[in-house]
Structures are given as structure tokens and as C-alpha cells.
Backbone:
């Protein structure tokens, strides 16, 4: 059973996002980005209340900007999703979860050391150039229930 409901167009959109955000970090990096997208659709807390679909997550606006840099800059639309990214997107939608993105709701590339917290949320771990952050359990219990 899939972790979230999705359509073929959701798979293609997520695949394009994963490629735009983490192509340089290989398949594992793209899987981690995909996992954060799915986690946001599953979490019912913080900035992710009433965000349940893949398009809602990807096109979410926070603080007047899109949540993901690839949408802000438009590079999510530069390339079509290839079959390899679609397979990776489907993996994260169906079952894939791994540390440090297992429970993470945020990631970013600081172009330096990963800070111990980001917007008050604890550091879960790095993967190549990205830093992943999980919510504090007392602020987002739903992120840890599934």
C-alpha cells in the first residue's frame, strides 16, 4: 500500500522535483528529497497542516515564497522526468524511508557545515551536501507515527 495517494502526474512532478533538487547527489540523494516530500504530505503539524497531496507539497508557499528552491527558481520545469527518476519517485511514494530523511520535513544545502538546528528543529544528519532536519517530537508527533 502506498504511503500517500498519487497519480501518474504526481509521480512525474515529484520525479522532476527530485531531479531538480538533488540530481548532483545521485539516486540516494534524490530518494532523500522524495522522502521529505512524502513526509510533508503525511505530517499533520507545523507548516504542513492541510497539505496532503504531492502538488500541494511541491507548490506550497511559506512566507511569501515557494517552499522549494527548484520551484522558486523554475528549474523544476527545465527537464522532463526520466524513467529513472520516476522509478525513484515511485519508490518513495510506495515504501522507501532511510536515515537521515526518514522523519525529516526539511533539508537544505548550506554550502558549509550543517547547523545543529534549522528554524528551531534538530539536525537529523547530512547526506553529501544536504542537511536534513526532523521536527521535535513534541511539536509534530504525527511525523513519527507512520
Residues:
Amino acid at each position: 500500500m502506498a504511503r500517500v495517494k498519487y497519480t501518474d502526474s504526481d509521480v512525474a512532478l515529484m520525479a522532476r522535483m527530485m531531479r531538480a533538487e538533488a540530481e548532483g547527489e545521485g539516486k540516494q540523494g534524490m530518494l532523500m528529497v522524495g522522502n521529505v516530500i512524502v513526509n510533508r504530505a503525511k505530517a499533520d503539524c507545523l507548516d504542513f497542516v492541510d497539505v496532503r497531496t504531492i502538488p500541494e507539497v511541491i507548490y506550497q508557499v511559506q512566507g511569501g515564497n515557494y517552499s522549494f528552491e527548484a520551484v522558486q527558481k523554475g528549474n523544476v520545469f527545465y527537464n522532463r522526468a526520466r524513467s529513472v527518476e520516476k522509478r525513484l519517485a515511485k519508490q518513495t511514494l510506495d515504501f522507501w524511508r532511510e536515515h537521515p530523511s526518514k522523519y525529516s520535513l526539511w533539508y537544505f544545502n548550506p554550502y558549509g557545515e550543517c547547523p545543529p538546528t534549522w528554524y528551531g528543529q534538530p539536525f537529523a544528519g547530512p547526506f553529501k551536501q544536504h542537511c536534513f532536519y526532523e521536527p521535535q517530537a513534541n511539536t509534530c508527533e504525527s511525523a513519527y507515527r507512520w
Summary: Residues 93 and 109 are 23 Å apart (CA to CA). The chain has five helices and six strands. The radius of gyration is 14 Å.
